[in-house]
Every structure is written in C-alpha cells, then in structure tokens.
Amino acid sequence: MAQLIDGKQLSDQVLQEVASEVELLKGKYDIVPTLAVVLVGEDPASQVYVRNKVKRATEAGMGSIEHRLDAETSQNTLNALIDHLNNDPEVHGILVQLPLPSHLNEDEVIASIHPAKDVDGFHPLNVGALASGRPSLVPCTPQGCMIMLRQVHPDLSGKNVVVVGRSNIVGKPMAALLLQANCTVTIAHSRTRNIESLCRNADIVVAAVGRAEFINADWIKPGATVIDVGINAIDVNGKRKLVGDVDFESVARVAGAITPVPGGVGPMTIGCLLLNTTRAARRQLA
Ligand SMILES: Nc1nc2c(c(=O)[nH]1)N[C@@H](CN(C=O)c1ccc(C(=O)N[C@@H](CCC(=O)O)C(=O)O)cc1)CN2
After folding, report:
1. ipTM value for the complex
2. Is residue 282 part of a domain?
3. Domain that holds residue 230
4. Quick check: is 117 catalytic?
5. Can you give the three-state secondary structure of 18-38, one letter per residue?
C-alpha cells in the first residue's frame, strides 16, 4: 500500500509557521498581516472555502476582511472595491474567490489586483515572474503540491513528471515550479495522445483535470508518486462523496506515495494562501 501524504498534518505545520511569522511582524514592525477576501454570489463550495480561509487566518492571528457581494454585482462595482483594497495600507493580501459569475470578466478582475497584494499569484506580472524563474507570489495549490512532493522527494532533480491538466490556476504554474526544481515535465491535456502510456512512464503524476476518478492503476508505474488535485462531488447511493481525479482505491495499491481526497492538496491551498499573505505583508514593509 502506498505511503499517504497527509495534507491536513502538513498544512497544520505551515499554519504554525504562519502564526510565528505573524507574531514577529506584529512584535517587530507593529503590523497585522491582513487578508481581504472577496466573494461574489452564493456558490455553496466557494462559501465553504471562503469561510475556511477567514477561520484559518483568524486562528493564525492575522486580520481578515470579508466582502460578500451580490451575484448580480457589476464589473464596475467589483473594480471599484478592488481599487479601494489596493489603496488600503492596512490590507496586505487580496483574494477574489473563483469562479466568478459568468457576466464578470475574470481576467480583468485578476489584472486589476495590485501585483504586490495578489496572494493568489494569478496576476500576469506574477505569472510572468514564475515563468521566467523569478517567482514572487506563487499560486497556492501548486505551491502546496511542491511542499507535499518534497516530503517524498527532497531532491526532485531529473524526475519525469506528467501534469495532467493545463489550467492557469494549477497545471501551468505546477509545471513551472517542477521545471524550476529540474524535473523533466510533460503537460498532458484533452488533446494529448497516448496519455496513459505517458503517465505509466512517469516517476510523478500530478492529476489536475477536474474529472472524478479519471486516472486508474493501469496508468501508474509501480512505486510512482501521485498528487491528486481534483475535488469532485459524486453521488454514491444517494449520498454526496468527495473524490479526486484519481481512483484512490486502485492507485494506492500500485503507487509508492499518494495524496488523499479530502485531506490532501485542499488544506495545503489554504496554508499556502496565508503563507503568501505574510510574505506580501513583509515585502510591503520596504
Ligand atoms: N481565488 C481562488 N479561487 C479558487 C482557488 C484558489 O486557489 N484561489 N482554488 C479553488 C478552491 N479552493 C480555494 O479557494 C479550495 C478548494 C478546496 C479546499 C479544501 O480544503 N478542500 C477539502 C474538502 C472541502 C470540502 O469538504 O468540501 C479537502 O480537499 O480536504 C480548499 C480550498 C477554486 N477557487
């Protein structure tokens, strides 16, 4: 059976580091690192994530400001709020929960956040910095995946990695971080041919495709490490169950190490968000 990479436990460690850094910033510089979270609409999953972010921020001693906007909010109103937060010296990090309602332009919203406060790492300047090997604020989910991978592979150099999925939030920044760690990286996507055999040759598979239990044991080389980014709700005998993009039952019998869902990558995303907020706060001291 594969070694389980426990995201909950690792995330608690990250949050302890965050709490120490918050204490230091308060004591030495008299600032309270503060995260502003913006939620537009009533998407139930987004409401849970936002609640958890605010809860964890408070537990770590950080400040948090929640802005809940109506689903009908206009682009101008949202832009005006972000402009206000950009100019508020007491706000160090800004996060707009995604996805946004379809009438809003996500790219425009992301680009309107000041890059120094972009704790999601989605602003084009931060994306460019990561792509050119000068990362500043790194997207939280891939950052969390790297921490998890380092538990099993302190040196990632030369590893063959397949990232399944090419989203801006996970697939692309994940590939950039792995490349920076000297891995040989393949990004597989819906048009990729022989995706199964590509995965079967990989030392590490990162699944971020958004399809429930898409990857099964036949795709995995014995002993490989599997990082499952997917969070999919499925119906099992009338009950809602959360599963990843990986068929955990079968893959755990073949892999050397695997992340569970829930309790894997998800909690790390929130830990890294708060880590980014303390980093942003420290940089804004200068
Ligand atoms: N602005 C952003 N929007 C979104 C991001 C993001 O990084 N920035 N990522 C996802 C959602 N997300 C954070 O926002 C997120 C998803 C899941 C979890 C998590 O801890 N999941 C738990 C299960 C939770 C449950 O029971 O439903 C787990 O995996 O154990 C945290 C954060 C999209 N939007």
Report:
1. 0.96
2. no
3. 140-266
4. no
5. HHHHHHHHHHHHCCCCEEEEE
